[in-house]
Design a protein that fits this description.
Helix content: under 10%
Number of strands: 25
Shape: globular
Number of helices: 2
Largest sheet: 6 strands, mixed
Order of helices and strands: EEEEEEEEEEEEEEEEHEEEEEEHEEE
Length: about 350
Amino acid sequence: MSPSQPDALLQIDQLNDWVLTREGIVISPAAGDSFEAEGVLNPAAVLGPDGRLHLYVRVVAEGNFSRIRHFIRTQTPDGWVFERHCIALEPSEPYEFHEGGGGCEDPRVSWFAELELWVMTYTGYGDLARICLAVSSDLEHWERLGPIAYEDSLDVDLNGYSNKDATLFPVPVTGPHGKLCAAFLHRPMWNDRPRPAVSTHAGDSIWISYTQPITELVAKGPSALVNWSGHRQVATPQYGWESVKIGAGAPPVIVPEGFLMVHHGVSLAPNETVGGSHIEYSPGLILLDRDDPSQVVARTARPLLVPRLEEERHGTVPNVIFPTSIVPDGDSFLIYYGAADEYVGQARLHRVAPSAELAA
Protein backbone atom coordinates (compact mmCIF):
# COMPACT_ATOMS: atom_id res chain seq x y z
CA MET A 1 0.00 0.00 0.00
CA SER A 2 1.03 3.59 -0.36
CA PRO A 3 1.98 5.47 2.84
CA SER A 4 -1.21 6.39 4.66
CA GLN A 5 -2.34 8.84 7.33
CA PRO A 6 0.30 11.57 6.80
CA ASP A 7 1.14 13.66 9.83
CA ALA A 8 2.74 17.02 9.17
CA LEU A 9 3.76 17.54 12.81
CA LEU A 10 7.42 18.54 12.93
CA GLN A 11 9.37 18.76 16.15
CA ILE A 12 12.73 20.52 16.11
CA ASP A 13 15.19 19.87 18.92
CA GLN A 14 18.83 20.40 19.80
CA LEU A 15 19.92 19.25 16.34
CA ASN A 16 17.61 21.96 15.14
CA ASP A 17 18.12 21.75 11.39
CA TRP A 18 16.88 18.14 11.23
CA VAL A 19 13.20 17.20 11.27
CA LEU A 20 11.35 13.91 10.98
CA THR A 21 8.05 13.85 9.10
CA ARG A 22 5.75 10.87 9.50
CA GLU A 23 4.57 9.49 6.14
CA GLY A 24 2.38 6.64 7.35
CA ILE A 25 2.07 2.89 7.73
CA VAL A 26 3.46 0.99 4.73
CA ILE A 27 3.26 -2.69 5.77
CA SER A 28 0.57 -4.41 7.83
CA PRO A 29 0.24 -8.13 8.69
CA ALA A 30 -1.20 -10.10 5.78
CA ALA A 31 -4.59 -11.59 6.63
CA GLY A 32 -4.41 -15.35 6.86
CA ASP A 33 -0.58 -15.50 6.75
CA SER A 34 0.44 -17.62 9.73
CA PHE A 35 3.99 -16.24 9.62
CA GLU A 36 2.59 -12.74 10.35
CA ALA A 37 -0.13 -13.64 12.83
CA GLU A 38 1.41 -11.46 15.58
CA GLY A 39 2.94 -8.68 13.53
CA VAL A 40 5.39 -7.28 10.98
CA LEU A 41 7.94 -4.89 12.46
CA ASN A 42 11.46 -3.50 12.92
CA PRO A 43 12.82 -3.78 9.37
CA ALA A 44 16.31 -3.42 7.97
CA ALA A 45 16.33 -1.46 4.70
CA VAL A 46 19.01 -1.12 2.01
CA LEU A 47 19.23 0.05 -1.58
CA GLY A 48 20.52 -2.80 -3.70
CA PRO A 49 22.98 -2.47 -6.60
CA ASP A 50 20.00 -2.46 -8.98
CA GLY A 51 18.46 0.54 -7.22
CA ARG A 52 15.62 -1.43 -5.66
CA LEU A 53 14.77 -0.95 -2.00
CA HIS A 54 15.01 -4.16 0.03
CA LEU A 55 13.38 -4.51 3.44
CA TYR A 56 14.17 -7.35 5.83
CA VAL A 57 11.23 -7.39 8.19
CA ARG A 58 10.76 -9.27 11.43
CA VAL A 59 7.54 -11.27 11.02
CA VAL A 60 6.05 -12.87 14.10
CA ALA A 61 4.01 -16.07 14.12
CA GLU A 62 1.80 -17.24 16.95
CA GLY A 63 3.73 -17.78 20.17
CA ASN A 64 6.22 -14.97 19.43
CA PHE A 65 8.11 -17.10 16.88
CA SER A 66 10.04 -14.66 14.69
CA ARG A 67 11.47 -14.96 11.21
CA ILE A 68 13.09 -12.39 8.93
CA ARG A 69 11.14 -11.95 5.69
CA HIS A 70 12.54 -10.24 2.60
CA PHE A 71 10.32 -7.56 1.00
CA ILE A 72 11.09 -5.61 -2.20
CA ARG A 73 9.59 -2.19 -2.96
CA THR A 74 7.90 -2.05 -6.37
CA GLN A 75 6.34 0.84 -8.29
CA THR A 76 2.72 0.26 -9.38
CA PRO A 77 0.09 2.55 -10.93
CA ASP A 78 -1.28 3.02 -7.41
CA GLY A 79 2.09 3.95 -5.91
CA TRP A 80 4.86 2.07 -4.15
CA VAL A 81 4.09 -1.35 -2.67
CA PHE A 82 6.24 -3.72 -0.64
CA GLU A 83 6.03 -7.21 -2.09
CA ARG A 84 6.75 -10.29 0.00
CA HIS A 85 9.69 -12.07 -1.58
CA CYS A 86 11.01 -14.88 0.61
CA ILE A 87 12.10 -15.85 4.13
CA ALA A 88 15.66 -14.63 4.57
CA LEU A 89 16.28 -16.28 7.97
CA GLU A 90 14.26 -18.42 10.32
CA PRO A 91 15.33 -20.03 13.60
CA SER A 92 17.44 -23.11 12.97
CA GLU A 93 20.38 -22.88 15.41
CA PRO A 94 20.36 -23.56 19.18
CA TYR A 95 21.05 -19.90 19.98
CA GLU A 96 17.83 -18.98 18.11
CA PHE A 97 15.48 -21.13 20.20
CA HIS A 98 14.05 -20.75 23.68
CA GLU A 99 11.52 -22.79 25.60
CA GLY A 100 8.32 -22.77 23.59
CA GLY A 101 9.57 -20.70 20.70
CA GLY A 102 12.39 -19.05 18.84
CA GLY A 103 13.49 -15.91 17.17
CA CYS A 104 15.49 -14.26 14.41
CA GLU A 105 14.59 -10.69 15.28
CA ASP A 106 15.19 -6.99 14.53
CA PRO A 107 17.74 -7.07 11.68
CA ARG A 108 19.93 -4.24 10.47
CA VAL A 109 21.83 -4.55 7.18
CA SER A 110 24.94 -2.65 6.05
CA TRP A 111 27.37 -2.91 3.15
CA PHE A 112 30.87 -3.89 4.31
CA ALA A 113 33.03 -2.71 1.41
CA GLU A 114 36.29 -4.22 2.70
CA LEU A 115 34.80 -7.74 2.47
CA GLU A 116 32.47 -6.93 -0.45
CA LEU A 117 29.56 -8.35 1.53
CA TRP A 118 26.29 -7.23 3.03
CA VAL A 119 26.34 -7.77 6.79
CA MET A 120 23.17 -8.42 8.76
CA THR A 121 23.10 -8.01 12.52
CA TYR A 122 20.06 -9.55 14.17
CA THR A 123 18.91 -10.80 17.55
CA GLY A 124 18.94 -14.56 18.09
CA TYR A 125 16.36 -15.16 20.81
CA GLY A 126 17.53 -18.24 22.69
CA ASP A 127 18.33 -18.61 26.38
CA LEU A 128 19.67 -15.04 26.03
CA ALA A 129 19.00 -12.37 23.45
CA ARG A 130 22.24 -12.54 21.47
CA ILE A 131 23.52 -10.33 18.67
CA CYS A 132 24.16 -12.60 15.69
CA LEU A 133 25.65 -12.05 12.24
CA ALA A 134 24.87 -13.22 8.73
CA VAL A 135 26.45 -12.17 5.43
CA SER A 136 25.32 -12.07 1.81
CA SER A 137 26.88 -11.24 -1.54
CA ASP A 138 23.55 -10.79 -3.34
CA LEU A 139 20.93 -9.72 -0.74
CA GLU A 140 19.18 -13.00 -1.52
CA HIS A 141 21.08 -15.76 0.24
CA TRP A 142 22.35 -15.32 3.80
CA GLU A 143 25.10 -17.27 5.54
CA ARG A 144 25.14 -17.30 9.33
CA LEU A 145 28.39 -16.44 11.10
CA GLY A 146 26.95 -17.08 14.56
CA PRO A 147 26.65 -15.02 17.75
CA ILE A 148 28.99 -12.16 18.58
CA ALA A 149 31.91 -13.05 20.88
CA TYR A 150 33.03 -10.30 23.27
CA GLU A 151 36.68 -10.37 24.25
CA ASP A 152 37.23 -9.68 27.94
CA SER A 153 38.24 -6.06 28.30
CA LEU A 154 35.80 -5.20 31.11
CA ASP A 155 35.32 -6.35 34.68
CA VAL A 156 32.19 -8.27 33.61
CA ASP A 157 31.86 -10.81 30.80
CA LEU A 158 29.49 -9.38 28.21
CA ASN A 159 29.03 -12.87 26.76
CA GLY A 160 26.79 -13.67 29.72
CA TYR A 161 24.40 -10.74 29.16
CA SER A 162 21.55 -10.28 26.73
CA ASN A 163 22.29 -7.69 24.06
CA LYS A 164 20.34 -6.10 21.22
CA ASP A 165 20.24 -3.28 18.65
CA ALA A 166 23.59 -3.79 16.97
CA THR A 167 24.35 -1.48 14.03
CA LEU A 168 27.47 -1.34 11.87
CA PHE A 169 29.26 1.91 11.03
CA PRO A 170 29.32 2.53 7.25
CA VAL A 171 33.11 2.99 7.05
CA PRO A 172 36.12 1.89 9.13
CA VAL A 173 36.93 4.07 12.12
CA THR A 174 39.98 4.42 14.32
CA GLY A 175 39.80 1.92 17.18
CA PRO A 176 41.33 2.04 20.67
CA HIS A 177 44.48 0.45 19.23
CA GLY A 178 44.93 3.43 16.87
CA LYS A 179 44.25 1.41 13.70
CA LEU A 180 41.31 1.41 11.32
CA CYS A 181 38.73 -1.21 12.13
CA ALA A 182 35.03 -1.92 11.84
CA ALA A 183 32.86 -0.68 14.69
CA PHE A 184 29.40 -1.54 15.95
CA LEU A 185 26.93 0.08 18.31
CA HIS A 186 24.95 -2.19 20.62
CA ARG A 187 22.86 -2.23 23.81
CA PRO A 188 23.87 -4.59 26.65
CA MET A 189 21.03 -5.36 29.04
CA TRP A 190 21.99 -5.37 32.71
CA ASN A 191 18.62 -6.53 34.12
CA ASP A 192 19.67 -5.78 37.73
CA ARG A 193 22.88 -7.79 37.30
CA PRO A 194 26.34 -6.34 38.00
CA ARG A 195 27.28 -3.58 35.56
CA PRO A 196 30.80 -2.78 34.34
CA ALA A 197 32.61 -0.28 36.51
CA VAL A 198 32.74 2.13 33.55
CA SER A 199 28.93 2.08 33.20
CA THR A 200 27.47 5.31 34.54
CA HIS A 201 23.73 4.57 34.32
CA ALA A 202 21.55 1.69 35.48
CA GLY A 203 19.35 1.97 32.38
CA ASP A 204 20.25 0.17 29.17
CA SER A 205 22.57 2.41 27.15
CA ILE A 206 24.40 2.58 23.83
CA TRP A 207 27.87 1.05 23.67
CA ILE A 208 30.50 0.77 20.94
CA SER A 209 32.83 -2.15 20.25
CA TYR A 210 35.47 -2.73 17.60
CA THR A 211 36.83 -5.52 15.44
CA GLN A 212 40.49 -6.23 14.99
CA PRO A 213 42.27 -3.97 12.46
CA ILE A 214 40.81 -4.03 8.97
CA THR A 215 43.97 -5.49 7.45
CA GLU A 216 43.79 -8.48 9.78
CA LEU A 217 40.03 -8.80 9.36
CA VAL A 218 40.27 -8.94 5.57
CA ALA A 219 43.09 -11.49 5.77
CA LYS A 220 41.05 -13.78 8.04
CA GLY A 221 37.74 -13.38 6.22
CA PRO A 222 34.11 -12.83 7.31
CA SER A 223 34.24 -15.27 10.25
CA ALA A 224 36.51 -12.81 12.10
CA LEU A 225 33.63 -10.32 12.22
CA VAL A 226 32.18 -12.10 15.24
CA ASN A 227 35.01 -10.99 17.55
CA TRP A 228 34.52 -7.63 19.29
CA SER A 229 36.72 -5.80 21.76
CA GLY A 230 37.47 -2.32 23.12
CA HIS A 231 34.00 -1.92 24.62
CA ARG A 232 33.05 1.66 25.57
CA GLN A 233 29.90 3.32 26.77
CA VAL A 234 28.74 5.96 24.25
CA ALA A 235 25.45 7.42 25.48
CA THR A 236 23.13 6.91 28.45
CA PRO A 237 19.55 8.07 29.11
CA GLN A 238 19.71 11.84 29.56
CA TYR A 239 16.30 13.42 28.94
CA GLY A 240 12.83 12.63 30.22
CA TRP A 241 11.63 11.08 26.96
CA GLU A 242 14.43 8.46 27.21
CA SER A 243 14.58 8.13 31.00
CA VAL A 244 14.07 4.35 31.14
CA LYS A 245 16.60 3.31 28.49
CA ILE A 246 18.00 4.14 25.06
CA GLY A 247 19.28 2.00 22.23
CA ALA A 248 20.88 2.25 18.81
CA GLY A 249 18.34 2.40 16.02
CA ALA A 250 19.15 2.81 12.34
CA PRO A 251 22.78 2.36 11.24
CA PRO A 252 24.77 5.62 11.48
CA VAL A 253 25.12 7.66 8.29
CA ILE A 254 27.79 10.19 7.36
CA VAL A 255 26.81 13.85 7.31
CA PRO A 256 29.22 16.81 7.16
CA GLU A 257 29.20 17.14 10.97
CA GLY A 258 29.97 13.47 11.76
CA PHE A 259 27.98 10.26 12.12
CA LEU A 260 24.23 10.82 12.47
CA MET A 261 22.16 8.09 14.10
CA VAL A 262 18.44 7.77 14.67
CA HIS A 263 18.09 6.10 18.06
CA HIS A 264 15.17 5.19 20.31
CA GLY A 265 14.35 6.36 23.80
CA VAL A 266 11.97 4.75 26.25
CA SER A 267 10.03 6.60 28.93
CA LEU A 268 7.17 5.94 31.28
CA ALA A 269 4.01 6.55 29.29
CA PRO A 270 1.86 9.57 30.13
CA ASN A 271 -1.36 8.83 31.99
CA GLU A 272 -3.50 9.48 28.94
CA THR A 273 -1.61 6.97 26.77
CA VAL A 274 -3.98 4.22 25.67
CA GLY A 275 -3.53 0.50 25.32
CA GLY A 276 -2.50 -0.42 28.83
CA SER A 277 1.23 -0.04 28.23
CA HIS A 278 3.29 1.70 30.88
CA ILE A 279 6.11 2.67 28.51
CA GLU A 280 6.50 4.70 25.34
CA TYR A 281 9.13 4.36 22.58
CA SER A 282 10.09 7.40 20.49
CA PRO A 283 12.89 8.27 18.04
CA GLY A 284 15.58 10.91 18.45
CA LEU A 285 18.94 11.83 16.95
CA ILE A 286 22.50 11.45 18.19
CA LEU A 287 25.48 12.99 16.38
CA LEU A 288 28.78 11.16 16.94
CA ASP A 289 32.26 12.51 16.31
CA ARG A 290 33.65 11.54 12.89
CA ASP A 291 37.16 10.83 14.20
CA ASP A 292 36.10 9.16 17.46
CA PRO A 293 32.51 7.88 17.27
CA SER A 294 32.55 6.91 20.93
CA GLN A 295 32.08 10.64 21.59
CA VAL A 296 28.68 12.32 21.41
CA VAL A 297 28.70 15.74 19.72
CA ALA A 298 24.98 16.53 20.05
CA ARG A 299 21.64 14.86 20.69
CA THR A 300 17.97 15.79 20.61
CA ALA A 301 16.45 17.02 23.86
CA ARG A 302 12.97 15.99 22.71
CA PRO A 303 11.68 13.11 20.61
CA LEU A 304 11.33 13.74 16.90
CA LEU A 305 7.98 11.95 16.87
CA VAL A 306 5.76 10.38 19.53
CA PRO A 307 3.18 7.63 18.98
CA ARG A 308 0.04 9.24 17.54
CA LEU A 309 -1.28 7.02 14.76
CA GLU A 310 -3.75 4.30 15.66
CA GLU A 311 -1.18 1.71 14.51
CA GLU A 312 1.47 3.23 16.79
CA ARG A 313 -0.73 3.41 19.88
CA HIS A 314 -2.57 0.07 19.59
CA GLY A 315 -0.90 -3.23 18.79
CA THR A 316 1.14 -6.08 20.20
CA VAL A 317 3.09 -3.57 22.31
CA PRO A 318 1.20 -0.23 22.41
CA ASN A 319 2.80 3.21 22.17
CA VAL A 320 5.87 2.30 20.14
CA ILE A 321 7.84 3.99 17.36
CA PHE A 322 11.02 1.91 17.04
CA PRO A 323 13.39 3.09 14.24
CA THR A 324 15.61 0.44 12.69
CA SER A 325 16.65 1.54 9.19
CA ILE A 326 17.64 4.52 7.10
CA VAL A 327 18.16 4.89 3.34
CA PRO A 328 19.08 7.98 1.28
CA ASP A 329 16.32 9.41 -0.90
CA GLY A 330 17.40 12.52 -2.77
CA ASP A 331 18.39 15.21 -0.27
CA SER A 332 16.68 13.40 2.61
CA PHE A 333 16.53 9.98 4.24
CA LEU A 334 13.70 7.48 4.52
CA ILE A 335 13.34 6.04 8.02
CA TYR A 336 11.52 2.76 8.59
CA TYR A 337 10.28 1.81 12.02
CA GLY A 338 8.26 -0.73 13.93
CA ALA A 339 4.89 0.64 15.06
CA ALA A 340 3.40 -0.93 18.21
CA ASP A 341 5.36 -4.11 17.42
CA GLU A 342 2.78 -4.93 14.75
CA TYR A 343 3.26 -2.67 11.69
CA VAL A 344 5.98 -0.99 9.63
CA GLY A 345 5.90 2.80 9.36
CA GLN A 346 7.76 5.20 7.11
CA ALA A 347 9.04 8.68 7.94
CA ARG A 348 11.33 11.18 6.23
CA LEU A 349 14.37 12.73 7.90
CA HIS A 350 15.50 15.96 6.32
CA ARG A 351 17.05 19.32 6.99
CA VAL A 352 14.89 22.40 7.29
CA ALA A 353 17.36 24.12 4.97
CA PRO A 354 19.85 21.54 3.61
CA SER A 355 23.35 22.91 4.00
CA ALA A 356 25.33 20.20 2.28
CA GLU A 357 24.88 17.16 0.13
CA LEU A 358 24.07 14.10 2.22
CA ALA A 359 26.34 11.09 2.18
CA ALA A 360 25.05 7.55 2.56
